[in-house]
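step: validate -> pass
step: tokenize input -> pass
step: predict -> running
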Amino acid sequence: MYNKIIKLIIAASIIAYAVYQFTEGYIGNGIMFILLSLIFVFLYFKNEFILLAFLRLRKQDFDGAKKWLNKIKNPESALVKKQQGYYNYLHGIMVSQSNMNDAEKYFKKAISLGLSMDHDLAMAKLNLAGIAFSKRRKQEAQKLLTEATKLDKQGMLTDQIKMMKQNMKRAAGPNQHFGAGGSLRAQKRRGK
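step: predict -> pass
step: emit ->
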């Protein structure tokens, strides 16, 4: 895998060679080299291994996605800040199947680094809300759920958000039933 700076150096050298081709009169070659340099500029902003991991996740192949993410040895030097966010986001999705504590750390780090799409940010906050709710932090879960609802502008997560709200309402219901119930001693005191 190429470091992010190396990708820019390769793109700049290809552009320089394209300018040389233009000055020599080889216009077609110059255009081709400009287009070739755009690939490296694109890969600077969108990491190839993260793209391949997303493709694996779409097919529900968690092992394949983990394999592609493990090829990124040092994310801080190899990835731009938003790519680091997606790196942690993908790890959070994969780890959430088995370890909620690690998933919570990954999702929080992804949110702090930033995700470029509102849908991905809403999904991360929805997952964090589920983790907070399972750890009995209902106020934090409610706050994260409202943030996820605001970020889900296209309505792609409405079903999941509805389910989460229903689960929270069910858990918030009263545990004690008021009325004629109670222990025998309490009923005798009331005169029944």
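step: describe -> The mean pLDDT is 83.
step: cleanup -> pass
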